[in-house]
Amino acid sequence: MAPPPQRVQSDFDPTYEKLQNYQLHPAESRPHPHHAAPPNIGYGIPQFGGGGYMPGPQPLHQQHMALGYPPEARGPPQTKRPPESRGPPETRGPPQSKRPPESRGPPELRGPPETRGPPTQYQAPELEPVMPRPPPPAVRQVGWSCPKCTFINKPRRPGCEICSADRPLDYQIPEDIPMDADEARIVAGLQGSEDLFQQFEEAEKQKQERERAENFQALLQAEEEALITNEEEFDCPICFDTVEPGEGVTLRNCLHRFCKLCLKQSIMQSPDAEVKCPYKDNDYECNAPLPEREIKQLVTKEELQDLYKRGLREAESAAANSYHCKTTDCEGFCFYEDEVNHFHAKSVGR
Description:
Pathway: Protein modification; protein ubiquitination. Residues 232-350, 236-278 form the RING-type domain. By secondary structure, the protein is mainly α. The chain is 27% helix and 6% strand. It has helices at residues 14-21, 60-67, 181-224, 260-268, 292-298, 301-318, and strands spanning 144-145, 152-153, 234-235, 242-243, 248-250, 257-259, 322-324, 333-335.
């Protein structure tokens, strides 16, 4: 086994002086008080005459760990000594005295058992009830929160500054919050916009009233006229020709438009005495009757008399109690009744 480490002897070596006081040689080995140590293990005190400073002695339990001793044979680890117990005896401080057990604890339990008094019951001091901390005051939100982007807008702003969403309808503008410069500008702009909107509404209302009056006058004028002509060109649905303004006719009852020639021919060729609108297509056929005043403006007097005669013949043939005059070429007829036995025909004087 290697010899213990050596170090150079200094002018004052307390470890070396301590070993000399106990009459121990530096190279001698000292066994552990609980077991026999090997003869070649010492305190690691360096011998004199070395070439340099070497580490000092190690505790026994560290040496036993290095040699592989079991834990139960190593002994308790050495603790560090307090500063006042280190160094030579003349430099150490006074030892700290420990209090005896009789002087520990409360006053009534100190001293010998026969001199101790009865233990006093500990009474906890009365503590004042702890009041709960009041909740923090609610922070008043100034402005309205946008329902889309949750941005807090100023109270008097009509729309969101971020997403332009409308202000909630149920939001009430607080009256105790003063108006800042931006809100004043917004309110002034809104007031100006409202004034312009009111002016626009008044102008539109006057315009509608004027147009309504003009339309009423045009309706009265058209009612006085027997025939309503077209004001713009169109294509006749019968002859498919382009009809210039004023050359066509607009019927009153159905507002269908035809050229005058086609409408006149339709009147003269109508199989019925009651002339109907000639409009007809693949999906719809108009049955609106033509007024007599429109027919008078389209046909001549002779043609109108023929229409009257046609109507009389249809009425005579349709009636069950009709009677025609027996005179040759007489067009008169009558409707006989039980109480009437004679009929006077004005056309023949009989």
